[in-house]
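Quick one, T. Sequence first:
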Amino acid sequence: MTVHQADTVVVGAGIVGLAHALAAARRGGRVVVFERDDFAVGASIRNFGMIWAIGQERGAVYERALRSRKIWLEIAAKTGMWAEQTGSLHLAHHPDEVAVLEEFLATTPTDRERGATLLTAREATRRSAVARPDGLLAAMWSPTEVNVDPRRAIPAVAEHLVAEYGVDIRFGTTVRAVGLPTVSTTAGEWRAGRVLVCSGNDFATLYPDVFAESGLVRCKLQMMRTGVQPGGRPLGPMLCGGLTLLHYAAFDGLDARARLAERMDAELPFHREHGIHVLLSQTADGRLTIGDSHAYGMTHDPFENEEINEAVLAYLATFATLPDARITERWTGYYPSLRDGRTELVVSPEPSVTVVNGLGGAGMTLSFGLAEEVIGA
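Structure tokens:
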């Protein structure tokens, strides 16, 4: 029986796996990626395509996001992949939302240094033709956010790894077991010096005991997409409203946030119950991506709740007016999430094997930076 050779084996060709393959390939040696599906179908293509540094916890995680942003732009420059430095606008239609933004900017000097600033309503609508002017009080502009099209970006990254670094990516191949130096797959036996298990929503195939003890749960979300906007009209900055200030760790601990949460709990109990906050991004061909909701558990029913979709669209209409709001696609997504404040799970169940998981909804934002840390360790 032929035994194949690799220096590094990566399990999973979602964004986490591809990021670790890139970091490993840059250090040299033969890198092989195994992906059980024939092409990317998981959370890495079912998202907004937002490289969303502004929402990350300040400190090491925020710097990781900015490093990831740099790598995304490097790949785009080399491949021609669509990656727009659109920036973002947090639109505030209530005084308590303005108060959160003001406190955030007053207490996070790194963001001011990187260009985040509070705009007047007039200044905000000059930046975005989609932002709803009615009742708009202010908006926080951040220049650091990048918009990619996940359904194109993930294949583009994979192709870049193959062309630039000679990474061997084997789709339709399942890793059955790891017992270094042997990795057993449906494509035969391999000998490897290091294995990175980046298996995303699959908790069961490899090291199930590690996942059982990890605290990981699955997050189910609902998202939608419009058709191509008239004339392919660009969205400009990616948009969000006040609910988003309650979702991201960047705003945790702010005094004004607690007051905002109290109002939102009273006025939007359905949204809060279903973990709804609303973001708006665009695809390379001019479609708008809208979402989302968040439900946490080990097992979820497979059905969409149309009340959730209606609630998302209703809230979107409070801060944005779309040229063509007709929905052409709806889907659910699933990703692993840690609910204890950790931003990632990085563990070594045996020597030279590292499990990387649990980036939650920030995989596109954090994976490249995290991979450099893991591979460099």
